[in-house]
Amino acid sequence: MKWGVIGTGNMGRILIEAWLEAGVMEQQDLYISNRSAHKSSQLKERFPDIHVAADNASLADQVDILFICVKPLDIHPLLSDISNHLHHQQCLISITSPYAVEELEDLVPCQVARIIPSITNRALTGVSLLTFGKRVSPIMKGFIEQSVKLYSVPLEIDETITRVSSDIVSCGPAFFSYLIQQFIDAACDETLITKDEATAMMTEMLIGFGTLMKQGHYTLSSLQEKVCVKGGVTGEGIQILEQELGDMFNQLFQKTHDKYAEDKREISAQLKV
């Protein structure tokens, strides 16, 4: 199989690095294209056997699986340019949530799927969210699922939970990174611990926490019960969290869904033109 990536920004690059490290494909089976030639050349320097296509159309001519890693509002004009270069045996894969696979199927003659990645995929872990269009063959679906298993846990989802699933899997690392940084900063503000010390401790705690969850030693609630001794220090800290968090996460999901709805409205306006 020949793989192609249009758009080698942050997520496109993360996927390429994960694929090649996991052995999803050989370098010579990967074709890339990017609006900025500098980003493509950087990848070419690191992976000398990959192919940098002259343009998006020529890339589409040469690949079996084509990942579209561009911003949502750039997808429609891109597909308008390359649609004539696609055929039913190929599979086009979008990584962005606002475009439903059914909408993409109306724009191209090939098979269509969506795979929403996570930055955790760079460590060959975490979840990839999969949604398949009606034209995807059983053989193509099986090949994609097996390929994704090499660098993440594939989870097929329904269109109705796309946004919230992406909030957890794709946005979640950024959300919790922000909270963790605030925790570290507060520890430094309130005590004599240094930022380096607090960061090192927090990093190891998170690795240990993730390992406990992965190995199934505790659930989230049972872990809290084990650590939070009645009348102890942890209990005092939990009380503050209960008081201060309020409906913060409810508001977070409301905000991301509002943005999602705005993106979908803008996409719909594009499709009607």
Structure description:
There is one protein chain. This protein is of the alpha/beta class and 273 residues long. It has helices at residues 10-22, 37-46, 56-62, 72-82, 101-105, 138-148, 162-190, 195-215, 220-227, 233-245, 248-272; strands at residues 3-6, 30-33, 51-52, 65-68, 91-94, 111-116, 127-132, 153-156. Strands 3-2-1-4-5-6-7-8 form an eight-stranded mixed β-sheet, with helices on both faces. The chain is built from eleven helices and eight strands. The mean pLDDT is 96. The chain folds into two domains: 3-157, NAD(P)-binding Rossmann-like Domain (Rossmann fold, 3-Layer(aba) Sandwich), CATH 3.40.50.720; 165-252. Strand 2, helix 2 (37-46) and strand 3 (51-52) form a beta-alpha-beta unit. This is Late competence protein ComER. Belongs to the pyrroline-5-carboxylate reductase family. InterPro entries: 6-PGluconate_DH-like_C_sf (IPR008927), NAD(P)-bd_dom_sf (IPR036291), P5C_Rdtase_cat_N (IPR028939), P5CR-like_CS (IPR053790), P5CR_dimer (IPR029036), Pyrroline-COOH_reductase (IPR000304). Residues 4-97 form the Pyrroline-5-carboxylate reductase catalytic N-terminal domain.
